[in-house]
Amino acid sequence: MKSAILLAGLYADGGPTTVVEPRPTRDHTERMLVGMGARVQRHGANVSVWPVERLAPLDVEIAGDF
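The chain above was modelled as a monomer; its predicted structure follows.
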């Protein structure tokens, strides 16, 4: 759910979108967004994203199964 909200926040109007979490969770989406040039800020367990015009492509290598 957090990833979906952060991705939607990239195209929202009116400033940052903040996800308020009771405790920190995985941050894979935030790391990916930073790598693509998005403005992401963490405040304890909460994370905010700001709207973007566009994101830079990201080259990702995904390991295969053993």
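Helices lie at 2-9, 28-35.
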